[in-house]
């Protein structure tokens, strides 16, 4: 994955055998190495028609879904890069679902390259205005962008889950 950059940020929940949430959020600053970065609305728009993978921890041998097959759906909205993915009925899919339900996952991440003109720099501040998205990942560790959460909502009463979710985001 030559020159691919990876960023973690997101909120997602499990609904049945589907994970939904945000692989990236707009206008939220993150400290990356020795610079600050922010993703601007529209940054992913050119990538949404391509074949994007959903992986676990950026590991191509741990495939969960992809846009080409329709098992991964991506869209930009006012908040960020929204996703919905159908988990496979595999040991990996079942493991990811179990971890999501327990609240053990760290968040989401995305891998990208920046085309010419896709970024602006002001001192040590980078703004991503256009990126080539290659994959999103469910990550077990910590997201690069603060304030992200991972929620599981399957296999429990909707009201009880909604209450737990509201308590975690307050």
TrEMBL record:
Signal peptide residues on this chain, from the entry's feature table: none
Biological process per Gene Ontology, one example term: proteolysis
MF (Gene Ontology): peptidase activity
Protein known as: Phage prohead protease, HK97 family
Domain of life of the source: Bacteria
Domain Prohead serine protease as annotated: residue spans: 15-155
Any Pfam family the entry gives: Peptidase_S78
UniProt entry keywords in alphabetical sequence: Hydrolase, Protease, Viral release from host cell
């Amino acid at each position: 994955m030559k020159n691919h950059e990876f960023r973690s940020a997101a909120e997602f929940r499990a609904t049945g055998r589907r994970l939904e949430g945000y692989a990236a959020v707009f206008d939220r600053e993150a400290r990356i190495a020795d610079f600050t970065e922010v993703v601007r609305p529209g940054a992913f728009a050119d990538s949404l028609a391509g074949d994007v993978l959903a992986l676990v921890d950026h590991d191509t041998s741990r495939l969960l879904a992809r846009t080409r097959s329709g098992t991964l759906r991506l869209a930009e909205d006012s908040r960020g890069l929204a996703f919905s993915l159908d988990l496979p009925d595999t040991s990996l899919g079942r493991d990811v679902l179990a971890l999501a339900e327990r609240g053990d996952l760290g968040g989401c991440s995305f891998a990208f390259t920046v085309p010419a003109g896709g970024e602006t720099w002001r001192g040590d501040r980078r703004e991503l205005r256009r990126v080539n998205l290659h994959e999103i990942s469910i990550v077990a560790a910590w997201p690069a962008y603060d304030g992200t959460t991972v929620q599981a909502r399957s296999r429990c009463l909707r009201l009880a889950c909604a209450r737990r979710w509201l308590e975690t985001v307050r």
